[in-house]
Design a protein that fits this description.
Strand order of the largest sheet: 1-2-4-3-5-6-7-8
Largest sheet: 8 strands, mixed
Mean pLDDT: 94
Helix content: 25-40%
Low-confidence stretches: none
Number of helices: 11
Radius of gyration: 19 Å
Strand content: 15-25%
Shape: globular
């Protein structure tokens, strides 16, 4: 009998280069590189929008085989200024990726991301398919109105987590609760600093509680990085309340521009933020994509089954891309 061992993250590594790249008169992007400078370029796109990079994203990839590129998207994390909503939209983020690629002298790259990072990876691929080698995507989110309604209105995830959803609504008046997304955007753009802090914590807590089936009893004490919570809440609300291009099903309608490229798609069966049927719909239109449903995983990229699947996917893709070079 063959026993397959579960994979853990690669050992911690430090970047060999960190820099800030100016992309317009206002924004500078934090960029880091680690691993093998001569390896296959891989760019990992973080979620949110607004969550910023985790050093653990480096650890999905074999540092001997990959040139690992992480960056904080404009307006969040270590990018400057942060948080910032000015000139911050999907076309700008796609353009930022292209500028980073050009700045680093990369011809083509493996593009990876989870949740909003998967959204952004698809948007970049659709705009620049000739610059992508392949994709590894986790927790598919296409930004449609149905997905936003699932997350923020009472007939979706709220039915599974009614007490947590009530906490999410608690900072809103009865009238504001009729349109939580727009109401949160108003609170988060308030001049009242206390109101903004309360709203950002409540927004971030709702998502944290939905993200993992391995970690329970998450409360406000788990929000230890107020800057991250503020970036996540302000930028997510800004994008989702003004997501007309995405909510019109733009990504799925344009997916034929990347379907010639190989993709490994990972999705937790119990993902309560990004629904599995969305990944299933996407894969049905993508003949070169392979969907792997993780039977005991939720949304987080750092649950044990997701770590195992992502590291194995990265190894599989490294071997495939090496073969393509020969």
């Amino acid at each position: 009998m063959t026993v397959t061992m579960s994979r853990s993250l690669y050992p911690k590594i430090l970047p060999y280069q960190q820099e800030w790249l100016s992309v317009d008169d206002e924004h500078q992007l934090y960029i880091e590189q680690s691993g093998n400078v001569n390896g296959t370029p891989v760019m990992y796109l973080h979620g949110g929008p607004g969550a910023g990079c985790s050093e653990n994203y480096r650890r999905y990839f074999d540092p001997e085989k990959y040139r690992i590129i992480l960056f904080d998207q404009r307006g969040c994390g270590r990018s400057i200024p942060s948080p910032s909503l000015n000139n911050n939209d999907l076309p700008a983020l796609v353009q930022d990726i292209e500028r980073i690629r050009q700045h680093l002298g990369i011809d083509k790259m493996l593009l990876c991301g989870g949740s909003w990072g998967a959204t952004l990876a698809l948007a970049y691929g659709i705009a620049h398919p000739s610059k992508v080698l392949a994709f590894i995507l986790r927790g598919i989110f296409l930004g449609t109105q149905a997905e936003l309604d699932w997350l923020y209105r009472p007939d979706g995830a709220a039915k599974f987590f009614p007490e947590y959803y009530q906490d999410f609504l608690s900072i809103l008046s009865e009238q504001e609760q009729l349109d939580p997304l727009r109401s949160y955007q108003n609170h988060l753009s308030s001049a009242n600093e206390l109101a903004v802090t309360a709203a950002s914590k409540a927004w971030y807590l709702w998502e944290l509680r939905l993200s993992s089936i391995e970690h329970q009893h998450i409360d406000k004490n788990h929000i230890t990085d107020q800057h991250q919570a503020l970036c996540m809440a302000k930028i997510s609300a800004h994008f989702f309340a003004n997501a007309s291009e995405l909510t019109a099903n733009y990504l799925l309608d344009q997916i034929s521009r990347v379907t010639h490229l190989p993709a490994i798609i990972l999705h937790g069966r119990y993902d309560m933020i990004c629904q599995l049927y969305v990944a299933y719909q996407l894969t049905k239109r993508w003949q070169n994509a392979r969907l792997q449903i993780l039977p005991c995983a939720g949304h987080s990229g750092f649950e044990s089954q997701t770590i195992d699947a992502f590291c194995k996917a990265a190894d599989t893709m490294a071997a495939f891309l090496d073969e393509q070079k020969q």
